[in-house]
Specification:
By secondary structure, the protein is α/β, with parallel strands linked by helices. The protein folds into two domains: about 5-100, no CATH class; about 105-265, Alpha/beta knot, CATH 3.40.1280. The protein is built from nine helices and eleven strands. The strands form two sheets. It has a six-stranded parallel beta sheet with strand order 8-7-6-10-9-11, with helices on both faces. It is elongated and about 55 Å long.
């Protein structure tokens, strides 16, 4: 087994574990980290990601990380030292990577030719919710997730952890204007289904056999008026139990399941 090296060896070529002194990273440093085993494993398996700038692992997990990606350079730290790089309360499970956030793909690359289904998030800003939606998108075979450039969290950190690695399996597109993007998707052959609890159309009746884009609004404000005007149909999730509201990530999971039944799933990166 390769021996551990001190931090002053860090600049020399090295593969395998390195042990360094503990230090507290500045708060801004936390933005570039991914933590938790599912998120880290998916990031390391994603060919679109560069090799991480820094990988940290607890001693009792080092062999697992080494087996996950042979040749990966990493440093062995205790759990408290790993936690100092991350936001308060981050459940890192003994592993973290310093890596740039995913930038996303171009709309045309994701949506042409039309097929399967997509999900668009209109100002859904909570990383936990967006991460959970990515996880559902991967589970039900969505072709990708469309996010607004300025009103969506970065694809890393708490979002990556909540997604259980799905951000590295489901492509994402960041766009400036959602309404114009919906117009372009319509031109490419997609039907646009907006989720609106006030609609009289049940979601199961909203699909017309064409590839579909599901549009989800934020929990507080819902879908914005201009975005709704660019939908082909507005639909609701029927709730016979009488409870009139669902968390946006729970609603998205139901909508994605219904879309998978009506349009057929798309293969994710992991599925090939």
């Amino acid at each position: 087994m390769t021996s551990h090296r001190e931090r002053n060896d860090r600049k020399s070529p090295h593969r395998g574990p390195r042990r360094g002194a503990d230090f507290r990273a500045p708060a801004a440093d936390a933005a570039g980290w991914i933590w938790g085993w599912h998120a880290v494993e998916a990031a390391l398996a994603n060919p679109d990601r560069p090799e991480p700038a820094l990988a940290l692992v607890a001693a009792d997990r080092a062999e697992r990380l080494a087996a996950m990606k042979p040749g990966l350079a990493f440093e062995v730290r205790d759990n408290n030292a790993i936690a100092r790089h991350l936001p308060a309360g981050a459940v890192h499970q003994g592993v973290a990577l310093k890596t740039p956030a995913l930038e996303g793909v171009e709309l045309e690359a994701l949506a042409a030719p039309a097929g399967g289904f997509l999900i668009m998030l209109d100002q859904v800003t909570d990383p936990q919710n967006v991460g959970a939606i990515f996880r559902s998108a991967a589970a039900f075979g969505a072709r990708g997730v469309i996010l607004q450039d300025r009103h969506a969290p970065q694809l890393g950190g708490a979002l990556a952890k909540a997604s259980a690695g799905a951000i590295d399996k489901v492509p994402a597109v960041r766009v400036v204007n959602l309404a114009r993007t919906l117009d372009r998707l319509s031109d490419l052959g997609w039907t646009v289904v907006g989720l609106d609890g006030e609609s009289h159309t049940d979601l199961s009746d909203a699909f017309d056999g064409r590839p579909a884009v599901l549009v989800m609004g934020s929990e507080g404000e819902g879908m914005r008026r201009l975005v709704g005007e660019h939908c082909d149909v507005l639909a609701k999730i029927p709730m016979p139990g009488g409870f009139e509201s669902l968390n946006v990530s729970a609603a998205a999971a139901i909508a994605l399941y219904e879309a998978s039944r009506r349009t057929g799933p798309h293969r994710t990166r992991e599925q090939g």
